[in-house]
Amino acid sequence: MNIPSKYDSHQVENHWYDYWMEHGYFNSVPDDREPYTIVIPPPNVTGVLHMGHMLNNTLQDVLIRRARLQGKNACWVPGMDHASIATEAKVVAKLKSEGIEKNSIGREAFLKHAWAWTDEYGGVILEQLKKLGCSCDWKRTKFTMDDEMYRSVIKVFVDLYAKGFIYRGYRMVNWDPEALTTLSDEEVIYEERQGLLYYLSYPIEGSDEKVTIATTRPETILGDTAICINPNDERYSHLKGKRVIVPICDRIIPIIEDDYVDIEFGTGCLKVTPAHDENDKNLGEKHQLEAIDIFNADATLNSFGLHYQGKDRFIVRKQIAEELKEKGFLVKTENYINKVGTSERTKAVIEPRLSDQWFLRMEELVKPALRAVLNTDEIKFFPKKFENTYRHWMENIRDWNISRQLWWGQQIPAYYFGDGQDDFVVAETPEEALVLARSKAKNENLTIEDLKQDVDVLDTWFSSWLWPISVFNGILEPDNQEVNYYYPTNDLVTGPDIIFFWVARMIISGYEYRGERPFENVYFTGLVRDKQRRKMSKQLGNSPDALKLIETYGADGVRVGLLLSSAAGNDLMFDEELCQQGKNFANKIWNGFRLLKGWEIQEIPQPEASKIAIAWYKTKFNSTLIEIEDHFSKYRISDALMAIYKLVWDDYSSWLLEIIKPDYQQPIDRHTHEAVIGFLEQNLKLLHPFMPFLTEEVWQHIKKRTPEEALVVSQWPETKVMDEELIEEFNKASEVVSGVRNIRKDKNIPMKEPLELMVLNEGNFSKSWDPVVQKLTHLSQISYVDGMVDGALSFRVKSNEYFVPITGAIDVASEIKKIEEELKYTKGFLKSVQKKLSNERFVNNAPENVIALERKKQADAEAKIETLEKSLASLG
Question: Is 592 exposed, middle or buried (0-12, 13-18, 19+ CB in 10 A)?
């Protein structure tokens, strides 16, 4: 088989992905094997591949490919989220560009546009994931607006309503004035912003006296319905029972008393605006105050805004401050840093707003989910530190606002049949709703036309919280074969930023609807940041084009570059040089393979050095495999890759291939060649989850394979007993090789000039590695002596002393000077270590491993001093 001289990732990646797809290697159906299931965190249908997706999906692909190699029935379910807010915003913007207003065409027509947009632009990211090498079962691709998924959400809503968990209430909600919808508490991001604190004076009715309050939002005075003081505040005791006049709007409002007011904060007087602040709303209900909403849905002022009607709230803030100043109501302003709630999606400043909304009671639902992570260990978090974040949110959870004022999404299955507050029913279909409505209204004459379905849709997360169940149709058919086989899933890979939105809620729904966990392990990735530690974003322009990276470095190079520095839960400082490192690694493997395949094979005796090297690499491979398995068990995926990287780059390429390489234009023996090809195949199996394209290409070039013999469905290596003594002997031998090579380098002695190595016949060493040392350093012979060798250069490895006699003239004086300088430095270093070890405070307080390291430094320095002194003596 012709092997190209260079590895071409572009040609290789397209070829092998098509091959894998053609032979259905990624497809999964229930059988008698152990299932291994991952559900993809569904990206937004509006999304395109970015660095976070690259990291998250590479990790998932590593896990799924390894499971496939382990003989498990690997099932990775892909899919997309309909992303109500983001998608509707894009469709609205598109319509506006065509001169069409959303409300003018009605819901049905708008949804046709939304589906058309989804069909045209949706799913781009899933196609891009294929470029990365993701081995999803694409036949299982799900979309949260698919009919089956849609009906699952509706069924759950109806069920939870029937159980009393869902209710409709007039509550203070988080309003996004740009998206024109409510948001849950978790969708509000609080940012510290520099603003002003305005001190405003309110005239006391029938008096020349004024009372001063402080506010960050002077525009809201137009909605004030009371001033509140603490009943224990003696400064204002004379104001009890009086009323004040609100500036500009001249509304007369009462002064109320409540110990909610902090006497020490601000002026000790509080303006109460029940329609625009959660705490003010609570005060208003307690004291039966009117709630005056001064804003339109888009946060412009309504008719209560008087001459500011129709103007944006932030423009009004500046203008009303000027008017208050002109009229003598603005006492002063101060700089003030305030925490401002912003929309996670649109970045708009959130407006607290009273509204009729649907809520899900969470207090009871969270209990099994809390126990599963914190008490029973049924679900494990990696890293474990995120359990504290989970605990805090779950123990302080509030009811979930699940309704959204949008059209794109699952329409709430509530049907209204009258004007009364309770004149509605909840049902899965209009036909079922009609039966319930006739019964509730005691009116058999009602028709479907009399029913008006709630115009709102459900929060997008209300569909994705069912994802591990609904992708297997476990809501509509709870006992079907697929959900019984694949659920619960095994691993979830996600970012910690959606631990509340998604992870916690999936756990809640899993226990509510399956009575068991939705997954066993949750692996939290870090955020991808740039070299300056900034989060990558479009706004900063610091996020590279993901597809361009793949084009430049190859998918395998990018995958390696991402994973080499991506410890679980820790942010990744991304640098393109990491991808170059991955590309270099691919080239190293390719070139090593070409070297191996380029040697002539003959039936000749196996050299002793090759025998030793093969025995060593066999146990070294197994030692590394044990290490890799440990890393995978702890979800240290980056460490697992690094262990494989070192095995292939250092042990296999730099040592094994060098040891067994035949002399120039000489053949290699068949036994050695076959053994090393076998090692290469084992290496490829370990590497395949990380570098699927390169490894399959090399695998298929080694020999002709049937589709059943493809690497993607081969067998993961099994661990065997390792020979630790053999590994230790190699480590010593490699240091001897380095010692001789250093002498050659220092003295400019070329490799073609043979040297002799003499070993002081004392200490613990094995002669079995002599053939390897001799070959790698071009020694004429290795001999063993009983005493010091005069006129020779020496070095020490462990307890052994080695001498290299140098023929020709040696500058003895220069050599003595060099050794004396090194001796002086080493003695100084030893003195500093001894000083540290003689410090009782250090020895008593330092960790054991730190003290052990210092003692090792001491022993090494003492041994080196002994060697240097002997070398001086031999030269003197």
Answer: buried
